[in-house]
Amino acid sequence: MSKKTIYIAGLGLIGGSLALGIKRDHPDYEILGYNRSDYSRNIALERGIVDRATGDFKEFAPLADVIILAVPIKQTMAYLKELADLDLKDNVIITDAGSTKREIVEAAERYLTGKNVQFVGSHPMAGSHKSGAIAADVTLFENAYYIFTPTSLTKETTIPELKDILSGLKSRYVEIDAAEHDRVTSQISHFPHLLASGLMEQAADYAQAHEMTNHFAAGGFRDMTRIAESEPGMWASILMTNGPAVLDRIEDFKKRLDHVADLIKAEDESAIWEFFDNGRKKRKEMEIHKKGGVESAFDIFVDVPDREDVILSIMELLRGTSLVNIRINEENREDIHGILQITFKNEKDRKHARTVIEANTDYHVVIA
Amino acid sequence: MSKKTIYIAGLGLIGGSLALGIKRDHPDYEILGYNRSDYSRNIALERGIVDRATGDFKEFAPLADVIILAVPIKQTMAYLKELADLDLKDNVIITDAGSTKREIVEAAERYLTGKNVQFVGSHPMAGSHKSGAIAADVTLFENAYYIFTPTSLTKETTIPELKDILSGLKSRYVEIDAAEHDRVTSQISHFPHLLASGLMEQAADYAQAHEMTNHFAAGGFRDMTRIAESEPGMWASILMTNGPAVLDRIEDFKKRLDHVADLIKAEDESAIWEFFDNGRKKRKEMEIHKKGGVESAFDIFVDVPDREDVILSIMELLRGTSLVNIRINEENREDIHGILQITFKNEKDRKHARTVIEANTDYHVVIA
């Protein structure tokens, strides 16, 4: 494919990682970047994330074959409006990276209809607690879902072209309607964040009158409130642009709380048991996508004696793999899983690990 | 202190770990155990968890200086009733290990008042996803909170004596009123479990009509629903014996959901931002106790090059420590933390690790 010029507005974790991913498979492409702060522009230039950087959004837009808006949602919509008045290349592909899609897609259709551009919504679904150009990582989107939300401005060739341009991300592509995207993410991401923050606030308030609240909070509470530490600006934008879907989840959840309250009042122990058992069953069934945020969970379990020389010898066998974690479990030997739980970044290394361990040792390896 | 006979009813994870902990500091004590299944009794005997085991609860009760009821809540209350009719040692200390306290304390006072016994409620606050005598672990309660809830049957010497008997657990002792214990745990444990199961059920139902729900669920959702995999029987007992406090948390939470819903309907972005920012601040402030459940989080971070020979050499240095996890982080080098995150079971090994690494290498070690 011929050399392209890619313009990325927003050189934070997302924009920077997109740039690195694109360059991985297309080292000949020219990557231009915009960022408001010159500190970030300098980091992006030093790290080779972009070839040229500007503090003026308009400057590089007319040079681009592809424009990626990797800025906050409101800014994305403002930039779509600005792009409508610029003299862009014919058939330029414009896309974004926003966590919600419907409002962005509606803005794109509102401002860009009738212009000689292509637009598709994008949502590369990965992130981390890190931020900024310094944190940009070519592997950030590996095996993550990269979601396209087609619009009336999406041609038949738009998505195939983008898939090729973005091939270095090594993501899994999905196409979905923008409103459906927002509904689904309200359930598995937006509403859960609201729950976490609400629980944290509730506990903090309770601690005012019940001091030991601060002290007894432990593992389960930690898990339930971890995402309350997310960046407030991003989550405020999300709730502002996905209001109806989130309101729907709130109403639905309140009914569920009422139902459990009724069971408690009725002292219906078997129904309460069913409630918890159902939750447990459903969680085991649900494929919880392995790449979302910080952790990739491609695990193997190796049934070895709890001896350090054994563990070291296994690590020697696994040199060169994308090993990210080794946990020494003291699991009940009656479980299927063995004592050593080794996590890899991807399926390929996981399978390789099993092959290599089973070829060189007598240890049994389970993939789970 | 003179040799004592300790009788533990229930030789699962909790009872078994209590036994091992007691024996650690009092190897001369005689530990008697009761368990319904002979499979578990055999494991307990083989592992040296108990010296003698019975399948008849009444058999060893009259021999005991201390009786610990480490069975499910309802069973605990039934046993308290049985104990009232047995010919026990004068001044025998009776305690339990239940996750809720008020109903157990009320049962003890109801059945044992006027008898020549001492009773105090206990709640050793640790656990894991493991179960059974096979999983019993002398370190389970190390640095965990061991909560006493005094009753009208608690003498001045009851708790001090128990603290001595239980010294091998290496727990942190706390005394609190039984009803207050139940209120606090409703907030930081019981209600969160309900939330997790409710969210899991909500998402599973939503997935019926919105298929991508199953696929887009990722890190945040995984965290929020992890505790939905808990054992349903235990959580049903908890909700059945802590109804009022949990109902209070449900009502309070619904009001918070309503408040956020109002902010969304009003499109009040700055108030929504405050909501999320408040959650984040409060979480950072709250001391989330390090020992609760599966993980001990005694971590060190070692700033090393991401080279396998380096990692292997560090592991060699740490032979003999209670190392449970090695994570190879690809953290932003500007963070304080380094690439290798090593977790130990206790503070002693963590400090030793730092000493030994700093003595033998040039690598910088951070404790965090």
From TrEMBL, chains A, B:
GO terms for molecular function: NAD+ binding; prephenate dehydrogenase (NAD+) activity; prephenate dehydrogenase (NADP+) activity. InterPro entries: 6-PGluconate_DH-like_C_sf, NAD(P)-bd_dom_sf, PDH_C, PDH_N, Preph/Arog_dehydrog, Prephen_DH. Its EC number is 1.3.1.12. Residues 4-294 form the Prephenate/arogenate dehydrogenase domain. Pathway: Amino-acid biosynthesis; L-tyrosine biosynthesis; (4-hydroxyphenyl)pyruvate from prephenate (NAD(+) route): step 1/1. Belongs to the prephenate/arogenate dehydrogenase family. NCBIfam families: PRK06545.1-3, PRK06545.1-5. This is Prephenate dehydrogenase. It comes from Streptococcus thermophilus (strain ATCC BAA-250 / LMG 18311).
